[in-house]
Each structure stands twice: as C-alpha cells, then as structure tokens.
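Design review, sub-item: ligand-bound model
Attendees: FS, YL, KQ
YL presented the inputs for the S-adenosylmethionine complex:
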Amino acid sequence: MTHKHWDDIFQTTEQERLGWYEPDTSLTWKMLKPVGPGEGRAVFLAGIGTSSLADEMAEAGWSLLLNDLSPAALGILRSRLPAEADVRLVAQDMAVPLPDDLPGVDLWVDRAVLHFLTDREAIDGYFQNLRGLVRPGGHVLLAEFAPDGAQRCAGLPVHRYSLKEMEERLGDGFVAVAERRHVYHNPNGDPRPYVYGLFQREGA
Ligand SMILES: C[S@@+](CC[C@H](N)C(=O)[O-])C[C@H]1O[C@@H](n2cnc3c(N)ncnc32)[C@H](O)[C@@H]1O
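KQ shared the predicted structure:
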C-alpha cells in the first residue's frame, strides 16, 4: 500500500468531513481508564491520522510515537502539536517492520487502522510490530469495524474484527481487560459499528 491514496484524502478534505472524524474521544479515554496516567510513559498511536487524541495524550503527559502511512497526515498533526511535546514521527506502513531503534511502549492505540490490512502477511506483520514494541505489563487498545460493520471505508476494503479474533491475533501473553461495542456515526450520519478491545500484556 502506498501513502498517496491517504495523502490525497488528507490534503483535500477538511478534518471535520473525514469519514472517521471523531470530535469526541471520550469513549477511548473511558476504555483507557485501567491504563493509568501518562507521565513518564510512552504510547504508540498507530495510523493516528490527524486525530485530536494525539493532542490530548500529549497534554496528559504521554511521550508520543505517532505513526501513519501518510506523511501528509503526520505533517498536519505535528504542526498542530506544541513544539516542546515529546514526539517521534514514524511514517510507514504498519505491515512492514518498525525501525529497530524505537523505544518500548506502555500503550498501543489503534482506531480504524488495522482493519485496512486485509492479507495474511500484512496482518502478521502488524502484530509482529506490536509484540516487538509493547512492554510486559503494557496495554493495547484496538477499535476496529465490527463483524456486522461496513465492508469498505475510504474507498478500500476492510477486514472486520470480533474481540475473539483480536485475542487470537495478539496471541499468548495478552489478556482481555475490557470490551465495548460502539456505533459511531460518520459525518454523513451513517452508522459504523465498532468493536473496542483493551488488552494487557502479561509480565512486568
Ligand atoms: C480511518 S483513518 C483513522 C485515523 C485515526 N486513527 C482516527 O481514528 O481518526 C485510517 C488511518 O490509517 C492510516 N493508514 C492506513 N493504512 C495504514 C498502514 N498500512 N499503516 C499505517 N497507517 C495506515 C491512514 O493514513 C489514516 O490516517
């Protein structure tokens, strides 16, 4: 997958018109309650796009590893964040190995990114990256289209997830902590059912 498809969307669409625009991230914060405070801890935000979750997590004291396939999205987001925020940009496809020098993280958050990986090799690559980066005791929040959710988004096919499949893909050593079904309404008012799963890695 190249970044052009996503760059075009971010460069030609107002943030509020993006098909996944979420003005209120309170559900994510509710799901993240068991994770605890951000000070002195690092989060990897996979495919963060231009989400205000990044601004909020910086404000809450998290060190940010901001990933997206689209350099255009990361450019918009970085220019919005305070210059002094502790941020590293990771512009790449989540299906291919992450740079070796990334620090381990206490939290991994993905809303509506993983479901764009549709072939086995890409999905395996994503979970290899996740397992390589999340520290023992760390948490993972995945929010993906539910089994009865839409079959396409942003003009692309998606792979829909149940909590069970999330658990299976994470593999041994991750325990489900919380689950939530949520029907998001996109800017056109169309319902988009999601499954949210919070997991914790054993150990620490
Ligand atoms: C539907 S948007 C969600 C954006 C953000 N997570 C949110 O909730 O607002 C999907 C995002 O994933 C990014 N993306 C798509 N495929 C990706 C991949 N293979 N690796 C990394 N990012 C990807 C896109 O550029 C886009 O920013």
